[in-house]
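ingest -> validate -> predict -> emit
validate: passed (alphabet ok, no gaps, 62 aa)
predict: started
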Amino acid sequence: MHTSPIEVQKALKDMDYPAKKEDLVKHAKNRNASDEVMQDIKELPDKEYKNAADVSKEFKGD
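emit:
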């Protein structure tokens, strides 16, 4: 990962869950996330995320 999970969560603030990876990418882009954050989100597994904690787990390797 290129940035911290906190920065990713800031980019995903107000995200409506459940959300697919492509939805996370679009939301972060609309919030003008940094290139590093965008790269991290694009590297997430292609699945549906139930909530913000579900996204954070991917950064911890759980």
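Helices lie at 5-11, 21-30, 35-42, 52-60.
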